[in-house]
Amino acid sequence: MIQLAYPLALVSLVAIPLVLALHLLRPRRRRVVLSTIAVWQAALRDREGGHGFRRLLRNLSLLLLLATALVLGLALTGPQWLTSTANDADIVLVLDVSASMKSRSGIGSTRFDQALAVAASIVDGLPRNGRALVMTSGRKALLRTGFETDRGALRRALAQLRPGDEAGRPREALALALSLVRGRSDSRIYFLTDGAFDPDVDPGSPQVVFRVVGEPARNVAITRFDLRQERASDDRFQVLLTVRNYTGTPVTVPAAASLNGRELFKRTLELAAQGEQTLVLPFAGRALGEAMARIELDDDLAADNLAYAALNSPASLRVLLLSRGNFYLESVLAALPNTEVVKREAADGEDIAQLARSHDVVVFDGVAAPELPPGNFLLVDTVAPGLPFADAGRVTQPRILGSGPSALMRNVDLAAVQIDEARRVAVDKRAPGLQHLFWSAQTDLALALIDESRKLVYLGFDLAGSNFPLQAAFPLFVSQSLEWLRPRADDRLAHHVAAGSAISLYVPAGEKQVIVRGPSGKDETLEAIDGTLVFDATASAGIYRYSAGNVTQSFAVSLADARESDVNRRWSQGEQRQRADTAGSGAQALLPLWPYLLVLALVLLTLEWFVWAGSRSGA
Amino acid sequence: MSMTPHAARPAGRELVFDETFLRKLEQLELLARKIFRGLLRGERTTSRRGRGLEFSDFRHYRPGDDFRHIDWNIYSRLDQLFLKLHAAEEDVTLNLIVDTSASMGFGEPSKFDHARRLAAALAYIALNNLDRVAVSAFADGLSARLPPAKSRQHMAQLLGFLADLRCTGVTRLGASLRDFVSRTRGPGLAILISDLLGAEEAQAGIEALCYGGHDVVLIQLLAESEIDPPLEGALQLVDAETGDELEVTVDQELRRLYQQRLEGQLRDVESFCRRRGVEYLRASTAIGFEDVVLKYLREGRHLR
To answer: What is the CATH number of the domain that holds A125?
Structure first.
């Protein structure tokens, strides 16, 4: 069975009427009517040494040209000879849907189009009772069908496939495919790919048959794009842009970036062959909104000529302070930027779970804490039930003996801290997620705990009975504790992920329903669990917006992957071919016919030259 | 040079020769090499033994012979009986057979005009010698025929007949001459005027004439452009009779090969004629038909 890898190349067959037209338009011979041409025919035969095939040669020249055009046209379509399987072995079709499959290949087609054509031909060549399964290999491996004997269902599944903007991880896909055919040595896995991955992807199994499509491509790509608000200043931000040339020749690439539609810069980059250039440019103002970088050139892969970033205004940290009054703590919380503090003396009669959902952090300062629901909590001189540490009395003037390597204790100097009295806690040291922040000889003075639904920081003494609030370490400790409880450091960085990756979206406390709108403009309503939504439908690059309650934020998805943008083949087919040759009768052989057609065209052209030369010397 | 077929249709008036030419023609006398039976006695003796005055031959006496023809002088010298034979005096039917195929339309003047004028001149001479003259035209078959007549008033009718001929079609010489022989009542002098170009079964046709008892004269007419074609370069040659086409690039070498091949064909025809006792004359349209009649035919055995 013959199938065409580039059916659109059949357009080149218009060369045949062109040849005919040129033949018809060639200078006409002067027409002369004679009483008889018999004598001329005899004279011509005399000159040709008695061989009367001059007329044949003249027509042969045209026929050879037409045949050459036909053969070249067919060669451009990439015909392949597909042998049918001889048995009923199962087939797993793994289609590479990574971004490199979007590369142009052939006339008007992409590598993915060619892979689909090969997949369709394999489906067509299935034996009567043969089964096949379709799966895709992107950043994740996804099963698109079960094992099907219905060719129509398989074709429909193939027709729905599209390549994404994500970097591929073929190793995982092949591992999954191999697990599907485990124990069935006659089954085959056809991996339809462009081979733009590292050789170690090949699992070396004789069951895996690589069908490599695509031609060498030239690509220039944005491999990094980022925006960052300078930490030292809220009025300055930086843009990072890296562009890489994957071609073997130097290129000049216009590059530009914009923020909220306003152009930030436009530069022309001179990139050496296989070279890379990185721009780090400072700009005044706040980096808020949606940013896009682009390079303008016509290469074979357009997906990596654009990159996106999004910077959201950091949300205020909402802190509920349950305290009968704490000057030091209130002062520190009030001093923290972008923090809203709600103060109450107690939460009696209120649903603590509701309070925890509606605030980022709940602080219990010297007030009794109930069993803690999911949420973020700071316990000061109080202990809640149901924790891996419990109240076990009090100790006087505990001396701080050490501190742990926690992020909460970074740069916190406790050397001068003195404590009049502290709570003694009995700690379950085997409890998972428990960190010892600092301690005395008698008891832990500060702990941090993270479990499935809760994060809390425990400080085991009254601030008023200590000089800790007077130390520089105190505001640092409080700030780092709040940051750990509800991280906000990322708010100063661009909010973006690689295509195909999952992203955690933090939604305001109390909100569950999240509406995500992707680059296509289609809305998807999802449910957040405990204030977080893990979103992984990021196969397409672009700006994504998500809304929860009355808050709308955005994040960006880009390819920006230096390995994926290297679209030329890095995997060698030689070893695989050798394996396929020894794989037995279960494998299908897909023999590319274009080299043979090319040789045939050369032979035809050579013959035509001889005929032409012969006709010049003859009639 | 125009090589398109010439619609050779000279008016009958053109075929009326001037007085000088007619007087020259009257001095010519047609002879027939063979003696053949004539329907009427004319001014010519034939090889048929008969009661003419002109001595022909002797032969041994056979029982039953007329004693009046025994040569008694020989008997007295040799003591053997010989009969004295005399040639019978008979008139001659001149059959003019004119090729009217499309190839005859070529040349300047056209071979067709040349042929008709030749035919007219020969007919005139024959009629002046009180011979019968018939004219037949052929191309892909015997197309027209003017029955034999011997009166000089027949000349006007003959000129009109020739003037009405058209040259068209292919040359099927063999079939045409066989048809001619089957329709002709007795042998005579048959003068075939043709270019023999593209002629099918030419030799078979001439042989049929010979077998029919005719004294055959072949006048092969060629145009100068056929003998030395003024062609050069890339050409598409078209056969006027068959419509066949031939793409050819004519150079000096090919012209030479053409002339060699043409000369070979002419030699073949001439050789064949010699073997068959056919008088063969080759004429070019470049030579005026008067000269052909006065010079070429004078050199033949049919004029004296």
So the answer is: 3.40.50.410
Give B136's pLDDT tier (boundaries 50, 70, 90): very high
At residue B1, the pLDDT reads 33
User: CA-CA distance, B223 to B284, in Å (whole number)?
Assistant: 6
Question: pTM (2 decimals)?
Answer: 0.46
Residue among A110, A201, A140, A4 nearest A538 (CA):
A140
Is A324 found in the same domain as A310?
no
Which domain does A528 fall in, by range? 490-558
pLDDT at A619 over 50: no
Give the closest of A30, A39, A55 to B236, CB-based: A30
| Dist CA A37 CA B262 (whole Å) | 11
Other C-beta atoms lying within 10 Å of the C-beta of residue B12: 16
Contact residues, chain B, for A36 at CB < 8 Å: 103, 197-198, 239-241
Peptide bond into A282 cis (omega under 30): no
Residues 219-278 of B with CB under 8 A from A: 223, 226, 229, 231, 233-241, 244-249, 253-254, 257-258, 260-262, 265
How many other C-beta atoms can be found within 10 angstroms of the C-beta atom of residue A91? 26
Mean pLDDT, residues A267-274: 92
> Given pLDDT bands bounded at 50, 70 and 90, which one contains residue A201?
confident
Between chain A and chain B, how many beta carbons pairs sit less than 8 Å apart? Answer: 94
Is there a domain that residue B1 lies in? no
Q: Give CA–CA dist A544/A496, Å, rounded.
A: 9
A382 and A481 belong to one structural domain: yes
Please identify which residue in the block is written with the tokens 């002062």.
A331
Instruction: Give the span between the Cα atoms of A62 and A293, in whole angstroms.
Output: 54
Q: What CA–CA distances, in Å, run from A612 to A60, A348, A607, A617?
A: 9, 105, 8, 9
> Mean pLDDT, to the nearest integer, of A315-320?
82
Per the structure, the complete domain to which residue B137 belongs is given by 12-36+91-299
Strand ranges (DSSP E) for A471-531?
A: 496-498, 503-506, 513-517, 523-527
Work out how many domains chain A is built from and give that number.
5
Q: Distance (Å) from the C-alpha of residue A211 to the closest C-alpha of chain B?
A: 53
First to last CA, chain B: 39
Q: What is the pLDDT of residues A79-129, one digit of tens each?
A: 877 655 545 578 999 999 999 999 988 777 899 999 999 899 888 888 877
Tell me the C-alpha distance between B229 and B220, whole Å: 18
| Structure confidence at residue B31 (pLDDT) | 36
Same domain for A421 and A345, yes or no, is yes
Q: Are residues A350 and A453 located together in one domain of the fold?
A: yes
Which of the four pLDDT bands, split at 50, 70 and 90, describes residue A397? very high
User: How many angstroms separate the CA atoms of A323 and A382, rounded?
Assistant: 11
Going by the DSSP 8-state scheme, the letter that residue A140 receives in this structure is S
* A31: exposed, middle or buried (Cβ count in 10 Å: 0-12, 13-18, 19+): exposed
Give me the residues of B, 54-93, that contact A with CB < 8 A: none
- Work out how many domains chain B is built from and give that number: 2
Q: What is the pLDDT of residue A425?
A: 94
The alpha-carbon radius of gyration of chain B (Å, integer) is 22
Q: ipTM for the complex?
A: 0.77
Residue from A542, A559, A491 nearest A287 by CA: A491
Q: Is A97 helix (H, G, I), strand (E, B) or coil?
A: coil
B294 domain residue, yes or no: yes
- What are the backbone dihedrals phi and psi of residue A563, each rounded to the nearest 5 degrees, phi first? -75, -40
> Is residue A592 in a domain?
no
**A32 with B3: Cβ contact below 8 A:** yes
Query: Can you read off the two tokens belonging to residue A410?
Result: 């970074």
Residue A156's CB is within 10 A of a number of other CB atoms, namely 12
Chain B positions touching A42 (Cβ under 8 A) are 261
